[in-house]
């Protein structure tokens, strides 16, 4: 009883048997635990050491003998959470190793507003914590994405994704919600000459580069490639250093 659940939680079969024996017997010596678990005494010694190290079993020295008792089963949940956190911390490095040999460049095209929404959803579900964006927000506004785009920004902030944006220095929209640096919206902005901008939006995240065209062409794509995304990211970082922190306040398109 419960043995299969313990195994599913990460214990080995022998660890599960000994832990259940500890729960059933209370404080007991290793020979008694070995008999209850149906294991050889020599095997039980090693298993007990593993369970003590994990905190699932406590060792008690009575002077005459050493006894062992089970820890609270809730410790299993703590161990699972610890394993989850450890794996989450290692996951970026493991993913990078996997992608070195297993990810081949691929491109996916999207048409119309519903297709563009899929690009935004891909960003939200990518696991990234940073996006680099080259934005011509007047073009985005013309495509009629609101209120979806407003909701996208809200979800991005909720997921802790910070946006680093390049915007036209003039002729764009500059409000707390659009085109300006904002702690609230986790957005940092630099400004470049308007002639640099053609597409409505280019987004760089993880190993992907997405583009949303102007309303005239009405399409988008996501290109997944480590080399290509690294190249575009380098271009972005170079342009970021050239950008100014303030837009041209004399622009007629302000507010």
Salient structural properties:
single chain, 255 residues, Arc Repressor Mutant, subunit A, Endonuclease, Chain A, 7-stranded mixed beta sheet, two-stranded antiparallel sheet, 9 helices, disordered C terminus
Q: Can you describe this structure?
A:
This protein is α+β, with helices and mostly antiparallel strands and 255 residues long. It folds into 2 domains: 3-76, Winged helix-like DNA-binding domain superfamily/Winged helix DNA-binding domain (Arc Repressor Mutant, subunit A, Orthogonal Bundle), CATH 1.10.10; 105-242, 2-Layer Sandwich (Endonuclease, Chain A), CATH 3.30.870.10. The chain has 9 helices and 9 strands. A 7-stranded mixed sheet has the order 3-9-8-7-4-5-6. It has a two-stranded antiparallel ribbon with strand order 1-2. A hairpin with a 6-residue loop joins strand 8 and strand 9. Helix 2 crosses helix 3 (30-37) and helix 2 crosses helix 4 (41-54). The longest helix has 28 residues, at 75-102. It is elongated. It starts with a helix and ends in a 13-residue tail after the last helix. The model is unreliable at 251-255 (pLDDT under 50).
Lay out the secondary structure.
Elements: H1 3-8, H2 13-25, H3 30-37, H4 41-54, E1 57-61, E2 66-70, H5 75-102, E3 106-111, H6 112-124, E4 130-135, H7 137-142, H8 148-158, E5 162-168, E6 187-192, E7 201-205, E8 208-212, E9 219-224, H9 226-242
Parallel strand pairs: 4-5, 5-6
Antiparallel strand pairs: 1-2, 3-9, 4-7, 7-8, 8-9
Helix pairs in contact: 2-3, 2-4, 3-4, 6-8
């Amino acid at each position: 009883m419960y043995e299969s659940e313990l195994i599913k939680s990460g214990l080995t079969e022998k660890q599960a048997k000994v832990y259940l024996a500890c729960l059933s017997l209370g404080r007991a010596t290793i020979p008694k635990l070995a008999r209850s678990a149906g294991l050889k005494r020599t095997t039980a010694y090693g298993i007990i050491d593993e369970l003590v190290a994990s905190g699932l079993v406590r060792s008690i020295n009575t002077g005459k003998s050493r006894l062992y008792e089970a820890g609270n089963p809730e410790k299993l949940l703590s161990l699972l959470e610890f394993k989850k956190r450890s794996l989450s911390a290692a996951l970026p490095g493991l993913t990078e190793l996997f992608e070195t040999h297993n990810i081949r460049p691929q491109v996916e095209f999207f048409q119309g507003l519903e297709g563009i929404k899929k690009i935004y959803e891909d960003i939200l579900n990518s696991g990234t914590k940073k996006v680099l964006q080259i934005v011509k927000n007047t073009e985005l506004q013309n495509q009629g994405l609101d209120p979806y785009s407003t909701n996208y920004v809200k979800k991005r902030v909720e997921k802790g994704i910070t946006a680093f944006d390049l915007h036209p220095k003039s002729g764009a929209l500059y409000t707390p919600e659009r085109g300006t640096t904002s702690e609230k919206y986790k957005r940092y902005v630099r400004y470049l000459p308007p002639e640099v901008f053609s597409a409505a939006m280019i987004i760089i995240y993880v190993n992907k580069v997405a583009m949303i065209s102007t309303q005239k062409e009405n399409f988008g794509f996501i290109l997944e490639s480590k080399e290509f995304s690294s190249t575009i990211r380098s271009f972005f970082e170079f342009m970021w250093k050239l950008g100014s922190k303030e837009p041209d306040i004399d622009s007629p398109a302000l507010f």
